[in-house]
Amino acid sequence: MRFASFSICAAERSHVFRKRAYFGDTILNFGFCQHWASHWRVLSKRTGSGKVSAIFPVLFPTLVQRDCRAAGAVRRQRVSSKLSFSKKSKVADLLAPAERRIDWLDYVRLLCALMVMMAHYVVVVVPNVLGPANADLGLISDIANYGHIGLFVLFIISGMMITQIVQRQTVSTFVTHRVTRVYPTFVLCLTITTLVGIGESGHMHVTFWQYLANLTINADAFGYRPADSSYWTLTVEITFYVMIVAVAMLGWIKHIQIVVAVWIALQVVAAPFFPRAPLLGADYYFLAAGCVMGLLYQRRNEKLNLVLLAVTALLGTRTIFIAAQGMPFNPWIGIAVMMGIFALFLVMRGRDVRLPWAHRIGSFTYPLYLLHFKIGTIMLIWWATDANKWWLVLALSLGMILVSIVLDDIVEFRMRAMWRSLARATIARPFLRWEQRRILAVTAASV
Fold this sequence. Notes:
The chain is mainly α. It has helices at 2-13, 24-47, 52-59, 61-70, 72-82, 90-95, 103-130, 139-144, 148-166, 171-196, 208-214, 232-249, 256-270, 285-297, 302-324, 331-347, 358-383, 389-414, 416-425, 429-446.
């Protein structure tokens, strides 16, 4: 007992264990004791006294503290060798090194969101409200026609970041963070959109039952239209998240390279037969490309991943041709733009570019995407004339950006702790209990 208490006190003095999870203490204490037991057993054999193990931390406190700090990597390796990523406790996340945020991606995310917003306003809404003859802005309209490419890039960024995040988080932590990032902002933006559309006619009005169906993020499954046409991408994202969670729970995250390769192979096989199938259809090609890009950024199996990236690029060209059938842009120019974006991502690999306000900029693009389309359409229907249409589009865009920044600051930053506590107590709770049972089972087997 003295040996255990001395070891824990020394570790606390060195601030190694600043935070502990309830079920993580057993794993950490076991790993710490095993680390020091090797030193103490050697000294005990040399001196012939078992009391060395009890007095060693007292005689050499500086060495204990120094070695505790140096042994962080060793403990992480021991925990990882005993438990797969799907079995770690929350404390393992605290021990895992945090990867640096890629600032320039947040600026790319903002550019893509602005492209999508301009495409909706300039290419879709204004021509339908005032007529095509009164909606031509020359070069600006020509550029806005390719705004849908920005949506594909957002999918690439999502796949890239999720692939890296899931490898350093437990399942319960991943679910908690994804739910708190996606759902509170979505519910608020859905409610605002519904309120703005009260009294409108046709698709602009959202009924009560349609609102309830949209709260599931997959209104189509209940026979209702999405409250905003932009919401279809959330169904794609959530389906991707479900696949990632399933892979993690099966313990396959440590084989993520094989999982991504098999997924892309299935997409190639399914392309002629199931063009809109969940996970295998055209909407998921760029998410798969993002997963490959995430592995390339980790310098894993570079030759294989470059081949897989080329395959996803070919699949992406198919998606662009499909999109060009219903949109006024040249698919070959769209393909050239997309290949340039792939090249940009590869060139920027490993480059640490520090940019101001990157986190905030990348974060508010989510409510901007959710709010801009239907609310912008309604306001343009109310106020747009041939004389003020472009000033109104500019003012509306700036207003949407400002409102999105305010909403994101309140919901995502100021209320984040509350949302995460609520998510852990509800949606993530079954995953946390599953992890705890696995941890206890592995601990019992290792003793």
